[in-house]
């Protein structure tokens, strides 16, 4: 029996049909059989279509789906397609997220604060910056209220601004030693016939 041909003989009452003379409505067994045949035929067509044609069909099918069916498709995709990027701070407890952030240096914490509002909130908590201040012996001379946030980060920035960092000076004896070593190296390399690159 062909997929689109109605049966020649059928026992029982006359079949009700819709949109065509070979889509049975009141005969569940025949309905299931025709559905499976059409489903297999659609699968064969889908396998032969190009990627663009497949995308167009998928869009058409999604637009015809109800909201419940679209949610079903979304659930199927979540189960089948691995997540490309996942924000660990939304899945882990806050204490574990802060523990991970505690390994970062202050510059990296400031960069993380630019990722999202949630990361900004986490990376500016006093639990992280207080430890970095106390490591250098930088204390605050007041007790912040529970409503004040980011006090230790501000204190860390102020203390860093007050530091006067100068570039270390190279002593003359060290410079002479390095120059002598370079001349000796040039003589040694030249003895092998190799050029000395600066």
Automatic annotation (TrEMBL):
InterPro entries given for it?
Answer: F-box-like_dom_sf, F-box_dom, GEF_Ubiquitin-Prot_Reg
Q: What is this protein called?
A: F-box protein 16
| Residue stretches making up the F-box domain | 86-132
Q: Which Gene3D superfamilies match?
A: 1.20.1280.50
> By which gene is this protein encoded?
FBXO16
Organism from which the protein derives: Gopherus evgoodei
